[in-house]
Amino acid sequence: MVTRKILPFHFLIICGLSIFFSCKTDNDDIILNNSSQKYSVTGSKILEETKPIQLIGSNSFHTFSPGSTAMNSWNIDVAREFIGNSKENPLTGSPIKDSNGAYLHSLQSVVDGNRINNRITILCGFGWDGTTVTEFTGKSPSQTYWWNAYKTKLQQWANHFKNQQDVWIEVWNEPYRYDRADGYTDEIWEKDMNELVAQIRNTGNSNIILVPCAEQGQDESVLINKGKLFLTNKENIIFDIHAYEKWLLDTDVSINNRLDQLKQRNLPIFIGEIAPMNAGILMNPKSFLDIISNRGISVCGWVWKNDENDQNALLTKSGLPNNNNNNNWGTIYKNLAVKSRNP
């Protein structure tokens, strides 16, 4: 597991998965959408065919060990897949041993393992070559030495999966420093994210794309300032917010006010990460999860892993919810995952 600097990011090895789609939709919840896509975005809603859905998922490490039946009992809808070695992780074929000695399974095999359990896959690059030096979190994308090579890799992923509508791509994990000490501006975010999205769309891939917020994923102010403009002439874009200190240490009143500002602008959001421990601070995610559940917002918890010694792991080694010194994180998230969806 990678130690976070001051804000989001985690790391380590794996577990199993699975899913079964569950969503509540009444006739008056139906939104007409002329798209032929199975999954699409209209306004702030994610749609399956024409019906709004709420997704409860988990971050996972299936590139190290694919297979996803274990998630079925939790009713997990979507797996946000960690790709720590974007440079070497194969698209198809047999597992490889990368330059760091890790065995990596193909992205297609990861997708297939999720698909057989009716689970959506979000592919997200977390690092360039599998080393801590090239972790994406906190980096200004266009200032990295692998920027152009990564754009080429993104094109390859997009082209390969463009006819697989249950495969969504997130363009980068947790960009820009938490304190903006890297010279960050919203204009830089806008330029970088537009360029990354273009790599995918230029292949003819019209699947849903996730675009991260600033300050290592936690700062939604860039969406207030730039979100509507960014969405101009674009389709099927969702903004990914990571809920750690800047959210979990906030008051319920303030959280609701912040979410209201996004809702008023009709911005589609997805909570791509949330966990009780980050930067050495133990937090309680329950109140935040209750708020987003009631609002119909989709979320992926961190992280599907069997390890009671990791406070963010959702499971123990024996497969039970992990409630070890983590504010009952395992049980809290399982209770959310198994209950009816509220799109």
UniProtKB/TrEMBL annotation:
GO terms for biological process: glucan catabolic process. The keyword Transcription does not apply. Residues 149-307 form the Glycoside hydrolase family domain. Keywords: Glycosidase, Hydrolase. GO terms for molecular function: hydrolase activity, hydrolyzing O-glycosyl compounds. The keyword Hydrolase applies. Belongs to the glycosyl hydrolase 5 (cellulase A) family. PANTHER family: ENDO-BETA-1,4-GLUCANASE A, GLYCOSIDE HYDROLASE FAMILY 5 DOMAIN-CONTAINING PROTEIN. This is Mannan endo-1,4-beta-mannosidase.
